[in-house]
Amino acid sequence: MTLSTEFVVSSLQELYGENVTTADIKAWCAMNSSNYQTVTKRLDEYKVGRGKWNLTVSEKLEQTYQAPAVIPSIEQDLIPQKDDNFVSFGNFSDIKKIIKSNLFYPAFITGLSGNGKTFLVEQACAQLKRELIRVNITIETDEDDLIGGFRLVNGETVWHNGPVIEALERGAILLLDEVDLASNKILCLQSILEGKGVFLKKIGKYVTPKEGFNVIATANTKGKGSDDGRFIGTNVLNEAFLERFCVTFEQSYPTPSTEAKILSRLCDDDKFVTHLVDWADIIRKTFYDGGIDEVISTRRLVHIVNAYKIFDNKSKAIDVCTARFDDETKTAFLELYDKVDADFEIVDKKEEV
């Protein structure tokens, strides 16, 4: 008599339940005049350990592959909110044109920290009402983080799309933020950066990009590492990976007039804004000439005006927002601002209560 796998499984389940052992199978074979090796061979897909079989494994795997993502993509609104204080400058108009074109045209944006690289992509998507999925890259980012994987939900294992797959299926903009911090595991995106989609080998499904899908990467370097040590943790990216980006934009800090416009939307004190912009401009010129190793970014200036709103004290606002620098640099920055603003008084912490 030829035993079917279905008969063996159902018969074993009736006698011993879902989990069976070597002893159980040998006893069953004796009762049914069957060969032990033949029976265990039919149960290969159910084996979970040495001398152990789980007779529901196959069923669970089928349910797993058919299961939806943990959060169906339709339930999420991924269009960034418009920021009324946003002032366009630098490469904003070019990035907006690329996104508006709906063409697959990967772009790389590089520049010093705090000059609005990420913000300009977010606001371009907000103005065009395009969905944006931002992924903050680190040295630990791997294929599971980007593409997706199995997750335990309510006691069951289900497939969960990663941000890359979500962006592909929705035709969204995928923003790889700080991409130069990545390891070689980022190479799992090679085919995606060619606009070809990706095959999900874990569930046997090929995902093709929906119209409008695009990839934009931001980084402090050009993917060649940081020679001066300013951006510790950045890595040399694979040349084939970098070559897949069609264009590279070099984002600079805004001009003094543009920067003044940015700060004026956050601060009503025009004199303070003017002094801050002039101060930052002098520091940057000195930095570019190699005179100092640190720089005041646009983001740092925004921190200062917001600190001014909180503490209502210009000296304290500048002091606490420059405290991130070493003592020598901080002192030099404060003394320079003192020369720019005649009304400025360096805060004396001993007098603070």
Summary?
With 353 residues, the protein is an alpha/beta fold. The chain has 14 helices and twelve strands.
Can you tell me about this structure?
The structure is a single chain. It is built from 14 helices and 12 strands. The chain is an alpha/beta fold and 353 residues long. Strands 5-8-11-4-12 form a 5-stranded parallel beta sheet. The chain is elongated. The relative contact order is 0.10.
Topology:
Layout: H1 5-16, E1 19-21, H2 22-32, H3 36-42, E2 47-49, E3 52-54, H4 57-66, H5 92-101, E4 107-110, H6 117-128, E5 132-136, H7 143-146, E6 148-153, E7 156-161, H8 163-170, E8 173-177, E9 198-200, E10 205-207, E11 214-219, H9 239-243, E12 247-250, H10 256-264, H11 270-288, H12 298-311, H13 314-321, H14 327-340
Parallel strand pairs: 4-11, 4-12, 5-8, 8-11
Antiparallel strand pairs: 1-3, 2-3, 6-7, 9-10
Helix pairs in contact: 5-6, 10-11, 11-14, 12-13
| Class by SSE composition | alpha/beta
- Characterize the overall form: elongated
Oligomer: single chain
**Unreliable residue stretches:** 58-71
**How much helix is in the residues?**
40-55%
- Strands, count: 12
Secondary-structure element sequence?
A: HEHHEEHHEHEHEEHEEEEHEHHHHH
**In DSSP terms, counting alpha (H) and pi (I) runs of 4 or more, how many helices?**
14
Calculate the terminal CA-CA distance, rounded to whole Å: 93 Å
What is the overall pLDDT average? 88
Q: What is the makeup of the main sheet?
A: 5 strands, parallel
Strand content: 5-15%
* Strand arrangement in the largest pleated sheet: 5-8-11-4-12
- Please tell me how large the radius of gyration is: 29 Å
